[in-house]
Design goal:
Blueprint: H1 4-18, H2 22-36, H3 44-61, H4 69-82
Length: 83
């Protein structure tokens, strides 16, 4: 961490956090993780909408490569086993 004072402060905060109820710790964890992210991307929703529309157009045009759910689950399982 750096200094002895900072280490001591971290230990106190950690101990206090671990005394919280599960739901409170989860909320704290979400807040801490969110604080590490940059500002929200205000254009993300629109970008995802365009991507969804593009992919849907490929499916409807018959140009998309699609697989059934059994194959999808097999591929996921294979990737998880590979690590």
């Amino acid at each position: 961490m750096g200094t002895l004072m900072a280490d001591s402060k971290l230990l106190k905060i950690r101990a206090a956090a671990l005394d919280l109820a599960d739901a409170e710790r989860a909320e704290l964890a979400r807040d801490l993780l969110a604080s590490l992210d940059g500002p929200p991307d205000l254009n993300a929703g629109e970008a995802w909408n365009r991507e969804i529309e593009r992919r849907l157009a490929e499916v409807e045009a018959g140009t998309a490569s699609v697989i059934d759910s059994d194959e999808m689950l097999r591929r996921i399982d294979e990737r998880l086993r590979q690590g």
